[in-house]
Design brief:
Layout (H helix, E strand, L loop, with lengths): L1 H9 L2 E6 L2 E6 L9 H6 L6 H20 L8 H24 L3
Helix pairs in contact: 3-4
């Protein structure tokens, strides 16, 4: 995880050859950049959707964990997919409930 954070930070810089050697400079986006990410960041929605999405993700996580005893135990790929989906649902619900606007 630490390596991924460092790699993400490294993408924010670029190298420039100067008379004193190579310098790293911060990569900045133009102030008027109209990209899909800037439009998504400016998107406003009703905060009550956060609560609905939290409940939906929590039910998804609990439901997939409850489905594990029902599937064939010899089918390891299905069990792993259910565990991954359950963990995603529960972790996303906790993160969303912690960051939801009230």
């Amino acid at each position: 995880m630490f390596g991924a954070v460092l790699a993400g930070l490294r993408r924010g810089f670029y190298a420039v050859r100067t008379e004193d050697g190579i310098e790293r400079r911060l990569r900045t986006a133009p102030a008027n950049a109209d990209t899909a990410w800037t439009r998504l960041a400016d998107f406003e929605y009703d905060p009550t959707y956060d609560r609905y999405l939290t409940v939906l993700l929590f039910v998804l996580g609990i439901g997939t964990f409850a489905a594990i005893p029902v599937v064939d135990p010899q089918d390891a790929t299905t069990v792993l997919r259910l565990v991954a989906l359950g963990l995603f649902g529960l972790v996303a619900a906790v993160l969303l409930s912690g960051t939801a606007r009230t």
